[in-house]
Design brief:
Number of strands: 10
Strand content: 5-15%
Keywords: ATP-binding, Membrane, Nucleotide-binding, Repeat, Transmembrane, Transmembrane helix, Transport
Radius of gyration: 35 Å
Distance between the termini: 54 Å
Protein name: ABC transporter
InterPro entries: AAA+_ATPase (IPR003593), ABC1_TM_dom (IPR011527), ABC1_TM_sf (IPR036640), ABC_transporter-like_ATP-bd (IPR003439), ABC_transporter-like_CS (IPR017871), P-loop_NTPase (IPR027417), Type_1_exporter (IPR039421)
Bound molecules: adenosine-5'-triphosphate
Largest sheet: 6 strands, mixed
Family: Belongs to the ABC transporter superfamily. ABCB family. Multidrug resistance exporter (TC 3.A.1.201) subfamily.
CATH topology of the largest domain: ABC transporter transmembrane region fold
GO molecular function: ABC-type oligopeptide transporter activity; ATP binding; ATP hydrolysis activity
């Protein structure tokens, strides 16, 4: 019976793939809408030029016949005049067709516009996805997605614009050729066009083979892109551990399959196009023989033999590239399915959607409640991080989260930021379930400083200003006087102003890629300033000093202590340092997926047998592993 299940599964997969292809095709068609007028004009032009090909063959045949058959001079002159006029007409039709084809101004422009639009939609779709989307699959690594934006979107060109015109033109060639040839002699046409399967079959098989190879080669290329992007993002670690050769090996290994498949694809393409090209001329040879037999049996005239033959030969010109086109389209269809899958993936947590409530005041008071929350990360369903966790944080209070490593302290931040949704229970901000709130607004209310500050390539002012830009308060390139003033205020609060002003270019100092030109402590203070520039009602410090050396930690800690003293805002602190935690209004100890102890430092430290007390008692040189 497993075989039957396998067959059913295979059928289901095939049906799902066919459905996806169909949807991808209609989606692609919808993408042409903004340029539909141009597009259709171009396609009509392509159809006319396609129709003209066999028609020219037919006229040539007539022309030859006139010279061969018509003996009387006067009649021949008439016939030649008629033929010349028809040729003139054909010339006009061709001009019109080619003109219309170009007037689609031209297909390449349409294609570029469309691909740009699709790329943008794909990029937006990536940004709309919840964080879980990026946790779960090798298809969704940074390298893989960047590859999709670049390579897949580029491949789509084979399904649109000039290439679509070519397909229409080839179909027109086939229809016109069949019609003219059938009209001349249905017998000979049936015999000759009986060989069409000999052309179509290898091309169809080749397209299928190429399509299948393309899918596997793409999977390898995606993995190669992941290896490349991971290597480039971790260059310092790679250098420190001497992992360059390993990275090259991993990259080479992933490229070997696409290489092999490219070779096979070349062979398939060669066989396909070779068979197609040869078959047309074999058909012509066959036509001579069969035509002669029919001629002897008085079943066909000389004129009709010539028509069938020349139509066939002119059709061969029209089909010269069909084999490669079919392959490219097969590859492009795979890419279209992948891009469509990406752009049609709806996100339950969409920061760009502009949906969800925004409280009338526009600013959160900062009361946070977690009510009976249960949660497991989508990528690791078997690890239940929270099971009925409840915690209330009053507006303006500073709450420290403590507990053993991996107990779920940072997860609380992830749920509050709505990077993930809870499986059970609720996360509530000022009385409203966070799922009902605008994601963009919710995140704009939280200033987050995390363990490893990530800066962007640009100036210090730009990096700090980004905090305000994200909250929709301008900023960006530090733009404007007000923004510049806010950036400086935030830098002062973060204890960063002194070192920034001491730099030759001050706030205009470039920080380099990911902030490499700054020290860890400087980067962290810029990150704190970035979180503060929006003056958030909720501040989250997630082990903000743990990655720093002792001196930098002291400086950053001083900035944070000052900050906590100076302004009452809801603050969640996750820290290993006892001094940060002991000053909090409340310490919540997380263990076994719940808050097991709650209260101020003095109270918890006196609790006999308490987890917090034991953590503090076992602390090492003023640093506790909480
Ligand atoms: N993105 C993720 N996907 C799957 N599991 C995750 C993910 N992030 C964290 N986890 C797991 O969830 C659990 C809680 O992680 P969390 O980062 O919240 O712990 P923590 O208390 O902050 O730890 P630490 O003090 O070591 O930073 C851990 O078991 C961790 O392995």
């Amino acid at each position: 019976m497993p075989r039957k299940g396998g067959e059913d599964g295979g059928k289901r997969d095939k049906a799902a793939a066919a459905k996806l292809s169909k949807e991808a095709r209609s989606w692609l068609w919808r993408q042409t809408k903004p340029e539909l007028g141009f597009y259709l004009t171009g396609l009509v032009g392509a159809a006319i030029t396609g129709l003209a090909m066999p028609a020219v063959g037919f006229l040539m045949a007539r022309f030859i016949v006139v010279f061969y058959n018509v003996d009387v001079d006067e009649m021949r002159r008439d016939a030649i005049r008629r033929q010349a006029l028809v040729f003139l007409g054909m010339g006009a039709a061709q001009s019109l067709g080619a003109g219309l084809r170009q007037a689609g101004v031209s297909f390449s422009v349409i294609t570029e516009r469309m691909v740009r639009r699709i790329r943008l939609a794909a990029f937006e779709s990536i940004l709309r996805q919840p964080i879980a989307f990026f946790d779960s699959s090798t298809e969704h690594t940074a390298g893989a997605l960047a590859n999709q934006l670049a390579a897949d979107c580029h491949l789509l060109k084979a399904l649109t614009g000039e290439r679509a015109g070519l397909a229409v033109s080839q179909i027109a060639v086939l229809i016109a050729g069949l019609y003219i040839s059938f009209d001349a002699s249905w017998r000979l046409t049936l015999c000759i066009f009986g060989v069409i399967p000999a052309i179509v079959l290898p091309v169809a098989v080749q397209a299928k083979v190429v399509g299948r190879y393309a899918e596997r080669a793409n999977a390898s290329l995606v993995r190669a892109a992941s290896v490349a992007s991971e290597t480039l993002l971790q260059l310092r670690t790679i250098a420190a551990f001497g992992l360059e050769a390993r990275a090259v090996d991993a990259f080479t290994a992933e490229l070997s399959l696409p290489y092999k498949q490219d070779v096979l694809k070349g062979v398939a393409l060669g066989v396909g196009s070779g068979t197609a090209a040869g078959t047309i001329l074999f058909a012509a040879a066959f036509q001579y023989v069969v035509g002669a037999l029919f001629f002897d049996a008085d079943l066909i005239s000389f004129s009709d033999i010539m028509s069938c033959l020349l139509v066939l030969i002119f059709m061969a010109f029209g089909f010269a590239t069909v084999s490669r086109d079919v392959s490219d389209r097969a590859e492009a269809m795979q890419a279209a399915r992948r891009v469509y899958k990406l752009v049609s993936t709806l996100s339950a947590i969409d920061a760009l959607a502009g949906t969800g409530a925004v409280p009338p005041s526009g600013r959160a008071a900062g009361r946070i409640e977690l009510v009976e929350v249960s949660f497991a990360y989508p990528a690791r369903r078997d690890v239940q991080v929270y099971q009925g966790l409840s915690l209330t944080i009053e507006p303006g209070a500073t709450v420290a989260l403590a507990g053993p490593s991996g107990c779920g302290k940072s997860t609380l931040v992830a749920l509050l930021e709505r990077w993930y949704d809870v499986d059970g229970g609720r996360v509530v901000l000022d009385g409203a379930d966070v799922r009902s709130l605008s994601v963009r607004w919710l995140r704009s209310q939280i200033g987050l400083v995390s363990q490893e500050p990530v800066l962007f390539n640009g100036t210090i002012a730009y990096n700090i200003g980004l905090g305000a830009a994200a909250a929709g308060e301008g900023g960006g390139e530090g733009g404007g006087e007000a923004a510049a003033a806010a950036v400086e205020v935030a830098a002062r609060q973060a204890n960063a102003h002194a070192f920034v002003s001491a730099m030759p270019d001050g706030y205009a100092t470039e920080v380099g890629d990911k902030g490499v030109q700054l020290s860890g402590g400087q980067k962290q203070r810029i990150a704190i300033a970035r979180a503060l520039v929006r003056d958030p009602p909720i501040l989250v410090l997630d082990e903000a000093t743990s990655a720093l050396d002792a001196e930098s930690e002291r400086i950053v800690q001083a900035a944070l202590d000052e900050l906590l003293r100076a302004q009452r805002r809801t603050t969640i602190v996750i820290a290993h340092r006892l001094s940060t935690i002991r000053n909090a209004d409340k310490i919540a100890v997380v263990s076994g997926g719940r808050v097991v102890e709650e209260g101020p430092h003095d109270e918890l430290v006196d609790r006999e047998g308490g987890i917090y007390r034991s953590l503090v008692l076992h602390n090492n040189a003023g640093r506790v592993e909480l």
